[in-house]
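ok, trying the design again with the full structure, not the truncated one.
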């Protein structure tokens, strides 16, 4: 039967499904050939495997790789594995080698493996399952060089399904890969200021260096001199640990770096000579040094005209002892004149001591640095992956409640944000050596390490490997998703973030399912965040309600009297301290956080309290000390009430109480925004977001001041701030009304309303002081106001003293 083309077209127009069925019928004979059966390959059993290695390894890293692979596989459950330098007569075999030389064994790597190996660059490796002989399957772990063999072992440990009763794998383990960036490392400085490392033993450091290497890291940076204080936790003298870390790096073929600022005047010849002598003594004692990093500022205040000759003199002492090592410098804290001086000196002298330039917090931008620096010198990124606020890459739009409690060095898994940051900056660098001050950023370290190896690797796959490596294969997907959920807890206003409770439920289920992980410190870090976040959210909601009730009591002051109203408000606010009024979940979550903090101190030396754990400072991860920090304005209200009681007459008292009670609720037709609080800033335009601006260079982000050891009694809206919002927009105003813009902040606020600059009629410049800007009639008549901000010229001023905005009101004036 045939159908005329015009008639066929009309049929298809009337019945679209006909086309689908026609195509299906035409394709049906070929479906079996086109779509292979979706059947997962049967895993190969390596439970009784023999690890075969050469009697004479090609290098120290190859020998270490074999030891590490056997130890880590055994620790994970491969109890029946053994090691041999000769080929076993039967049973599965795991071969670990490096280089391309042929082997005197019954079997050599398949041709495909050797061809792949030839095409790899330094540190690359091939992992290939040769299961053709079912009697004796072979897993080939072949490094391009000895260091590559260590990374091959790491890949195997991340991808093998190792359980107490079995070791299984399949062809999904196959890979041929080389690192995208030659530098992939982390700072783990042994000093009193760190929140955990000062409590570590040499064995713990070796284990951590090992685990980073198994994910592809190839360098470690120590802090040998700075911060001379000792900590009560230190079980190893600092001088001993400096050398021990060098030896560990030598054993694992990890580059050993030193971070050595000069916090004294380099023009002082005596101090300068003493500093050089201290360096020389360490250079002589260390079996390995591969780089010395000198931060130009932060800390340090020396001009480069003093710094550069000093570094040249250091290099004269370094080169004979460690010929491969160079000295690197950052321009952190340098002003424009100092930056220009540095580049002029480098262009004119081309110093051979200079290994390259490090770009870290407060450095000139990476791309600007790459454009100005001579091509022969590489750029190394020094990303701050350890801090959450008051830092290089803060958490975007973090809730004030988290900033007050979790603070600057809390457990901070940020897989999505850190992935964006790495891939945004990496192309202009040879890699990174991160800024880290403890284990709380462990997830972030792994994210950066893996993406420096392969920027295309999916973040979720990295978390799957993380989970399998450290928690076992039975929970990998659930844990990976749970870590993502912990990051989502910190996104946006906390009261409306219902995912916080769902995240805790998810981790509750994992905790119940895996009691065997109770003593695992990485597990404890995840759990403490899940419980802490849920407790903080419930407390924030509760204490916000208490403040609302206290404000209602203040509104009644015209009836009850000022002093009586303040007494009532204080009683209401004090309920936050009465645990009997807490919900059952709050009491349970609080107890769990306290217990987990204690477990983390015992398992990894994490110091979450100054008093209990002798932490080096409140800002250094003391989340336990801030667990009950007020999340409303209770402290500020207590101080305000004390001042109000001293006022000479009742009328003044009542007027001030009405102002306080209506602070965030200015009345019908008026609007209020707490600029730095994502849940209380509905009119603030937030910009393009993290995907296209991961470093928030064009997207303003809230910041949080740190005064009085984190226990400031200021109004909370004055602790959070921004400099400056993209805009503040009001779209439904009365075009016939009169309006006033009122703000709090610090120093200058240079406003434009619908593009036109306005000047303040009231110009309070201190923290909490009021500025007022009358709104001209012309923009009001449009029914829409857009407030934008000119940035004050504060070049050279310390960031703590720079202008900022904290609150803004649009007040509708009475007719």
């Amino acid at each position: 039967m045939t159908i005329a083309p015009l008639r066929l077209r009309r049929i298809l127009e009337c019945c679209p499904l006909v086309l689908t069925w026609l195509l299906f019928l035409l394709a049906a004979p070929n479906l079996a050939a086109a779509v292979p059966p979706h059947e997962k390959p049967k895993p190969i059993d390596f439970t009784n495997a023999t690890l075969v290695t050469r009697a004479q390894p090609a290098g120290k890293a190859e020998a270490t790789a074999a030891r590490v692979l056997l130890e880590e596989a055994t620790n994970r459950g491969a109890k029946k594995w053994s090691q041999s330098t000769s080929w076993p007569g039967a049973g599965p075999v795991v071969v670990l080698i490096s280089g391309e030389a042929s082997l005197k064994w019954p079997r050599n790597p398949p041709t495909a493996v050797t061809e792949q190996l030839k095409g790899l660059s330094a540190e690359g490796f091939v992992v290939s399952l040769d299961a053709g002989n079912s009697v004796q399957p072979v897993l080939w772990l072949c490094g391009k060089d000895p260091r590559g063999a260590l990374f091959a072992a790491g890949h195997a440990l991340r991808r093998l399904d190792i359980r107490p009763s079995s070791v299984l794998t399949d062809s999904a383990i196959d890979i041929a890969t080389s690192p995208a960036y030659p530098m992939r490392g982390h700072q783990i400085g042994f000093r009193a200021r760190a929140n955990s490392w000062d409590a570590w033993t040499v064995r713990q450091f070796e284990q951590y260096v090992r685990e980073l290497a198994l994910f592809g890291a190839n360098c470690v940076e120590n802090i040998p001199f700075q911060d001379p204080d000792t900590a009560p936790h230190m079980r190893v003298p600092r001088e001993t640990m400096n050398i021990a870390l060098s030896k560990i790096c030598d054993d694992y073929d990890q580059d050993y770096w030193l971070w050595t600022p000069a916090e004294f005047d380099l023009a002082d010849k005596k101090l300068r000579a003493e500093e050089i002598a201290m360096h020389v003594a360490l250079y002589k004692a260390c079996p390995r040094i591969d780089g010395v990093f000198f931060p130009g500022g932060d800390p340090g205040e020396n001009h480069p005209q003093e710094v550069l000759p000093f570094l040249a003199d250091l290099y004269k002492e370094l080169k004979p002892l460690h010929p491969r090592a160079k000295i690197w410098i950052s321009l952190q804290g340098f002003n424009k004149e100092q930056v220009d001086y540095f580049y002029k000196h480098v262009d004119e002298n081309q110093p051979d001591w200079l290994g390259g330039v490090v770009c870290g917090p407060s450095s000139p931008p990476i791309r600007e640095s790459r454009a100005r620096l001579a091509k022969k010198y590489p750029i190394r990124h020094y990303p701050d992956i350890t801090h959450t606020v008051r830092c290089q890459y803060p958490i975007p739009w973090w809730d004030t409640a988290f900033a007050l409690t979790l603070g600057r060095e809390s457990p901070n898994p940020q897989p999505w944000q850190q992935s964006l940051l790495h891939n945004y900056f990496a192309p202009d660098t040879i890699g990174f050596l991160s800024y880290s001050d403890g284990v709380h950023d462990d997830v972030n370290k792994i994210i950066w390490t893996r993406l420096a190896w392969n920027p295309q690797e999916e973040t979720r796959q990295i978390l799957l490997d993380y989970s399998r490596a450290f928690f076992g294969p039975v929970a990998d997907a659930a844990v990976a998703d749970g870590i993502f959920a912990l990051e989502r807890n910190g996104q946006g206003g906390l009261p409306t973030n219902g995912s916080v409770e769902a995240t805790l439920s998810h981790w509750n289920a994992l905790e119940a399912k895996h009691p065997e992980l109770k003593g695992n410190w990485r597990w404890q870090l995840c759990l403490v965040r899940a419980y802490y976040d849920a407790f903080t959210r419930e407390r924030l909601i509760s204490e916000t309600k208490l403040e609302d009730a206290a404000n209602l009591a203040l509104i009644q002051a015209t009836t009850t009297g000022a002093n009586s109203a303040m007494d009532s408000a204080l009683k209401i606010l004090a309920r936050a301290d009465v645990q009997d009024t807490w919900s059952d979940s709050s009491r349970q979550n609080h107890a769990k956080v306290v217990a987990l903090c204690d477990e983390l101190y015992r398992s990894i030396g994490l110091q979450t309290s100054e008093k209990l754990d002798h932490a080096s400072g409140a800002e250094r991860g003391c989340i336990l000390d801030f667990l009950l920090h007020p999340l409303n304005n209770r402290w500020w209200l207590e101080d305000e009430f004390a001042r109000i009681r001293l006022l000479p007459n009742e009328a003044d008292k009542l007027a001030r109480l009405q102002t306080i009670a209506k602070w965030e609720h200015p009345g019908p037709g008026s609007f209020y925004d707490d600029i730095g609080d994502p849940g209380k800033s509905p009119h603030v335009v937030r910009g393009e977001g993290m995907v296209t601006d991961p470093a928030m260079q064009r997207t303003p982000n809230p910041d949080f001041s740190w005064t009085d050891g984190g226990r400031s009694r200021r109004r909370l809206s004055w602790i959070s701030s921004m400099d400056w919002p993209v805009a503040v927009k009001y779209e439904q105003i009365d075009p016939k009304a009169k309006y006033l813009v009122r703000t709090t902040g610090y120093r200058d606020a240079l406003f434009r309303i619908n593009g036109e600059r306005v000047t303040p009629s009231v110009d309070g410049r201190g923290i909490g002081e009021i500025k007022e800007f009358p709104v001209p009639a012309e923009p009001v008549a449009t029914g829409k106001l857009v407030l934008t901000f000119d940035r004050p010229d504060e070049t050279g001023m310390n960031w703590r003293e720079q202008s900022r905005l904290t609150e803004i009101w649009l007040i509708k004036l009475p007719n």
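Keeping the full-length input from now on. The two ends are 84 Å apart (CA to CA).
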